[in-house]
Design a protein that fits this description.
By secondary structure, this protein is mainly beta. The protein has one helix at residues 2-26; strands at residues 51-61, 68-74, 77-82, 89-94, 100-105, 112-118, 121-126, 131-136, 142-147, 155-157, 162-165, 170-174, 181-186, 188-189, 192-193, 197-203, 206-211, 216-220, 227-232, 249-255, 260-265, 270-278.
């Protein structure tokens, strides 16, 4: 009996130490904003869907003051939505130099979020104010605003609908004219919901989604919501670039004509062109 009690105590100690180690690692994650408590990232088990890693093809400068929330490639340039209260903006950025060539700031009460280009318009979400902005894509003049329920996180488009995430496991497909929800899917992996879906990009029939507080991108079937693959970008930003206010991975843009995939992060000094490959 004493031996059994000793075994139970030893197992309890091991579990406690493992929990402490997990907590210590998580404490290094940066919050979504310094004024908001950190939310834990979802546990992602390793199962039978493919896992991919990456190869860096090119590195480009990126404004280390840009809290990247939305990223789109269009005709040789990047369109970027940045967040944080008092620092949110819509930008057009030169890919090669990282230079901002056009910029409009949001009023300080709005926290910029996801971004999509559709039919000559730039459409930008905000975080908790349930308000989106529609701009002329060329001039950045505001054409209108629209409302939606819940939080705004990521935004993309598939040529027919806007695709929106809100920090839950839900992805909504919106009418690009009325902004009403046409349908929604729950994103799952191994039968369980995948939450905190952040920046989105629609690539070759799949939705790519940053999972907030992780270094992983989920590849999602837009019809069923099932995760079909994971892309692990651990180690993408070099240790020497992780200085100052560097935050988490966020930002996916795709050049369909050149088959180029770009990724960056919040307050990152670099943007990367990567090639995805099987691990």
């Amino acid at each position: 009996m004493r031996q059994a009690r000793n075994v139970v105590l030893w197992l309890s100690l091991v579990a406690a130490v493992a929990g402490c180690r997990h907590g210590a690692g998580a404490s290094h994650e940066q919050p979504r904003t310094r004024s908001v408590p950190k939310r834990e990232g979802p546990a992602i088990p390793v199962r039978e869907v493919p896992f991919y890693t990456y190869e860096v093809v090119n590195r480009y400068p990126h404004d280390a003051g840009a809290y990247t929330q939305g990223l789109v490639y269009h005709e040789g340039a990047l369109f970027e939505s940045t967040g944080l209260y008092g620092s949110s903006s819509l930008r057009k950025v030169e890919l090669e130099t990282g230079q901002v060539v056009r910029k409009v700031d949001l009023p300080p009460q709005y926290f910029g979020e996801g971004l999509a280009l559709f039919d000559g318009r730039a459409i930008q979400l905000t975080w908790q104010t349930q308000l989106g902005f529609v701009y002329d894509q060329s001039s950045f003049e505001v054409q209108r605003t629209f409302g939606y329920a819940g939080e705004g996180w990521g935004l993309a488009q598939d040529g027919e609908s806007l695709i929106m995430s809100d920090g839950t496991d839900q992805i909504r497909f919106l009418d690009p004219e009325t902004f009403q929800t046409r349908r929604a899917v729950s994103v799952t992996y191994d039968g369980r919901p995948v939450r905190q879906l952040n920046e989105l990009e629609y690539i070759a029939g799949e939705i790519y989604a940053n999972v907030y507080l992780t270094d992983r991108i989920a590849r999602i079937d837009p019809q069923s919501g099932r995760v079909t693959a994971w892309v692990d970008l651990t180690g993408l930003l070099a240790p020497e670039d992780r200085r100052g206010r560097v935050d988490v991975l966020n930002g996916i843009a795709y050049d369909a004509s050149g088959d180029r995939l770009f990724v960056t992060g919040k307050l990152w000094p670099r943007l990367f062109q990567i090639r995805v490959k099987r691990r």
